[in-house]
Amino acid sequence: MSLQAPTATRGPDEVLLGFTHALRAAGVGVTHDRGASFLAAVALVGLGDVVAVRAAGRATLCAGPDDLDRFDQVFAAFFDPRGELPRSRPAPAGAPAPALLPESDAGAGGAADEDEEVVRAMASDVEVLRHRDVAALSPGEKARLADMFASLHVRAPVRRTSRHERWRRGDVDAARTVRASLRRMGEPAEIAWRRRSLRPRRVVLLVDVSGSMSGYADALLRLAHRLTHALPASRVETFTLGTRLTHLTRPLRLREADRALVAAGETVPDWSGGTRLGESLGAFLDRWGRRGAARGAVVVVFSDGWERGDPALLAEQVARLQRVAHRVVWVNPHRGKAGYEPVQQGVLAVLPHVDDFVAGHSLATYAELCEVIARA
């Protein structure tokens, strides 16, 4: 059947294009080519068969399994819940027919009210998702959460150097003030000021990828990727801890997050394995701490503290780390959950030697962690 409609009506092609815009807003990567393929497929199966239209959309508009859940949700919300596709309806005279959500029979006022309710519902869903435990999310929710990492506000921690820079207040810059006076033949000149210059501190991320942390590994590496690209170049170093130490900075420097995580997965040999935090931290300090990666840095350890090795060794290595680093932050995914108490031997061993012990199970806690790092 033909999808063309008279110019005075809102035709089926405009409704279907509006549906593709809604999909794109929901996070599905709908390109112009896919949209054209969708229109051609619907022209073949016909608008009267809702099941066929849905199947055509899933086949032409979805690029992977993660898009299917979002497609089904948008399809159900966009089209008539009674199972019938929207029909062409008169558009206001003299006004172009925009590709928007189909209007309801209640009139313009009812449509505006429904749009406001949809916006509130979407905002509410986003806020709820920010506070959900990432280990309990469905694949579709994890895909939505992955897009939300770009919203994290990241600032670099800074340190004062021995050098000075011009500033509008602070200490008097005697040399510049005298030179300015000499240029005026000894006449008084405006007082120059200076302050000690600031440089960003290095941030070191140590991510536990053992079996007990497997539900959080993907989100933590996405957070590491966000920090790597948001902070000044070469100021973030990332390692994984498990049965061995792995340096992950290079793969995480890939610009696209999904490609970076695939490269990281190919680099780490001990995903979901055992936990030897004490030995891994010792290897990090022996190979990287002495070379300066941790010296004066903000070191963030992501781990639940389940240690299979000797807790005394873990406590000794964290104490060494605290002496070398500017600040040690320990992020435990169970810290922010109701009823949690630090009873694990590994956690009890490290608590006396860490500066901050914070939660790390949701996007909201990752936002709080970014502030802790910035203020360090």
UniProtKB/TrEMBL annotation:
Domain of life per record: Bacteria
Annotated region described as Disordered, given as residue ranges: 85-115
Chain ranges of the VWFA domain: 200-368
SMART domains: VWA (SM00327)
Biased composition (Low complexity): 90-106
Protein's name according to its UniProt entry: VWFA domain-containing protein
Organism: Nocardioides marinisabuli
